[in-house]
Each structure stands twice: as C-alpha cells, then as structure tokens.
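Researcher: Going back to the complex we discussed earlier. I've cleaned up the inputs and rechecked each line, so this should be the final set. Can you rerun the prediction on the complete assembly and write out the structure?
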Amino acid sequence: MLPQTENSNAFASLAMESSHSVKHILSIDLEDYFQVEAFAGSVSREDWDRFPSRVEANCHRLLDTFDRHNVKATFFVLGWIAQRFPALVREVHERGHEVACHSYWHRKISSLTPAEFRADTRAACDAIQQAASVRVTGYRAPTWSVTPTSLWALDILVEEGFTYDSSIFPIQHDLYGIPGASRYPYFHTTSHGERLLEFPPATVKLVGRNMPAAGGGWFRIFPLFYTKWAFRRFEAENRPAVFYLHPWEIDPDQPRISASLKSRLRHYTNLRSTQSRLDDLLRSFQFQTFKEHLQEGPYDVSPAGPSDLQAAITQ
Ligand SMILES: [Zn+2]
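Model: Rerun complete. Updated structure for the full complex:
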C-alpha cells in the first residue's frame, strides 16, 4: 500500500479527467530481450547474433500502437540494432518518431574508460545516422548508468554534439541512480562550462524518498493506477513526466533465459498485460517526443550547476 503523505488528496485526483494541458514525454529504448542488464551475466555479447531476434516484430507493434493513438515517441536506439536492422530504424524515423542514441554495446558506463565510452558512442551514432540519415542529439545510457562515478560521460556527450540526456535516475537502486539528483529537468554544466539538458525519468516523492514512476519494470509490476496517479501529480505541477518502455516488454511469448530469480522477476513479470496498460496510458494522457518538447521552447528550467549535482551525490 502506498503511504499517504505529501498530498493526502492525491489519490482523489485519480477520478479527475486529465487536463490535457501537459504533454508528457514518451520514450522507447530500442533493444532486444537478450541485451538487457538483467541477463548480462547469462548472455555474452559475442552470442547476441545467435539469439532469435524479436525486435522488429515488437517494434512494429509499438509503431502501430502509436499510430492508433496518434502519438510520437523518442526511440533511443542501440547501435548494434541499427547496424543489423537499418531498415527498422529508418522506418521509425520515417513514421515521424525521433531517433536518439542508447549506446552501441549496452555496457554500463561505469565499466568503461572515457575513451571507450567515446568510441562506443561514436560507433552507435554512426550506425544510427547511416540507418536513418538523421543526426541524433539525445542520449540515454544503458541501465541508467550515469552515476556519481561516471558524470564525466556528460562532458563527452556535449563534446560529441548531444544537446540533451535522459540517464540520471534520482532514486536509490541496487544497480544505478543518484538519489538526491533533481526530479525535474535541469541544465547540467560540464567541467568546460557548457550546458547539457538532463531529463530525469519520472518519480514521485513519498515519505521523503523518490519512488520510480517512469515505466519499464515499475509500469509492469506496480498497479496501473500508481503510474496514472504519478502522472497526474506532474500535471498538477504543470510539468511533463518522462515515460519509457522496451519493445520486449509487450512480448509475453519471448524465449525464456535462465538467470537469477531477481532478474527473472524483473524481466518477466506481467508481460502479458503491458500492451493493454500502454493503450490505457496513451488514452488517458497526452505524450510527445523529447524533440517536440524542446521545440515548444523557450525552455524554462532552473539552471543547476555541477555543484547542485555534487551536493546531491554527497548527501
Ligand atoms: Zn537499455
């Protein structure tokens, strides 16, 4: 049961119609079911080519879903996928969605040197840009892996021409997160004084803790009303929530991979109901891409320098 704090009337707002004045941000991390961090210990990257791919069929289901709801999304594309399925990435772009970068090899940034991160990012951008003939400006790290020890990656993203990032989850988690980081978009100032817009995935503050409400596993495991309640709280503040999903999350028939119980729970819970939940969410709220959101400018966020993020990290 969710604690009744911060706003005891919050659940009452569930009954209210969405105001539709706020357009939330819809994003997809375009990768296949065997490439996720939960299975990284069971599936080596050299074996990716041996797994039966389901990314094309699942991505087409998402594209058709978005067409039905007349909504566009930002697709953070894995470079490996763009290399092997260029027609799919081109189709995503041609159907009006934004194409952005989700690295090439889906390795956590903390496992890379700065030079390796730069090379991986360039390889991904080359593959994506060759596939879709479009320059990407947005980045999302694999497994939300911009953490206190890998903030240097943001400097490299600016140097490589990115204008926004959506990789810092302001929560406490066993794999990632900066719990004290801002819950709202802000400008991160790099060590060279340049600015990168950071879009944290959606959270709600409950009993002093940030709880994830952005999609993915939480969207499948928590009841749907929790996500809808969180989104209405964003609307009450006239702010967009950042939502994300993976193509494999609407695929209950994907091959099963043996892994730890925790990994299997994270990956396989409620796959069968995700499509209907997604349809419900898209009926209940308005969404757009990061690019569309930025074009609505002028972009009015509170500048937060590195000292703010540093303060969050040292909390
Ligand atoms: Zn991913």
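Model: Worth noting: Residues 29, 31, 102, 106, 142 surround zinc ion (CB under 6 Å).
Researcher: Good, that matches what I expected from the previous run.
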